[in-house]
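Data deposition worksheet. Section B asks for the primary sequence of the deposited chain exactly as it was used as input, without tags or linkers unless they were present during the calculation. Section C holds the resulting structure in token form. Section D is free text for depositor observations; keep each observation to a single sentence. Incomplete worksheets are returned to the depositor.
Section A, Depositor: J.P.
Section B:
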Amino acid sequence: MIYYLLYPLHTHDALSFLNVLRYLPVRFLAATMTALLLTFGLYPWFIRRLQRRQIGQVVRTDGPETHLSKAGTPTMGGALMLLALVLSTVLWADPANSMVWVVTLVTVGYGVVGYIDDASKIRTRSTGGLAGRHKLFLQFATAIVICGWLFYGEAGLPNDWLEIRYRLAAPFFAFSKYPFELPPWLYVVFASIVIVGTSNAVNLTDGLDGLAIGPVMISAGTYAILAYLAGLTLFGNVVADYLDIPHIESAGELSIFAASVVGVGFGFLWYNTYPAQVFMGDVGSLALGGGLGALAVLTKNELLSLILCGIFVVEAVSVIVQVAFFRLTGRRIFLMAPIHHHFEKMGWPEPRVIVRFWIIAIMLAVASLATLKLR
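Section C:
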């Protein structure tokens, strides 16, 4: 909105400095700082509001004993993150760019699903919440509607997206030389699975103080770089063509959204770091996970996300494997799933698990960026 309102004024001599708003890095940094200041400044007030309304965390009785002390800690803190994320994106992104609205709608839609789930847990004072099948139905319905428009629609979609929307980019393979292409219906299903899977994987990771938000920020920061490179033209040369990755000029604006995720993440982490003063709840984890999944689809990095979001992938797979193995044999592979609880059961202190998972997330982000030159 600021871009839309103020940038046209740069033609006046006295306001020529507003020309800087045309540069993505400027708005990238502005969005990060806006989101950071909103969350950092408002969380003390928001936490007090949650405490007065007795919106506290319900803890699993079969979990690690050290978690029992977390009961009653204010939760649903992700609602403020979602508000700050949307505000900073709307303020600094180009409102004429439909890609920004797509990723924002996915994030808000999944935030609503998370809010319903959290509200159910608070109301019943249990960890059950919204039934799994109902949650998956709402998640897939949201994803399929939006992906259906992305891969079947025409109106409102940028031409650079329409030209390559059925093509699949694979890490380590040059995009121009290996034209992997999927039928529209299959891409709708595949993209929906990516979004839903990422959303639930982040939700499963959100079990320790600061554990989920660290990799979320790292992944979002990497997507910001990938989105920026996808649309960057430098000295008359298209950078995406040089790197042999999908060239989607309109995807550059997605870096504003991704930067806002990093900003709200830092603001939230100040209060969520061990020992946490507030938890994000499903309203935060499902929304942020859905946003990351949408970024993967819109920047054509669905397969690369298996590496970049490796922490979330391992957390989700550990639950799937644990449940399947237990049903087949009556025994467990891990002491407890998701896998971060396995390490707690082994005696690792919570901060050690968190920091080591963050380090792995950074290594995976570096590896993901390295694939840009390994093609």
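Section D:
The chain has one domain: 25-370.
Residues 25-370 form one domain.
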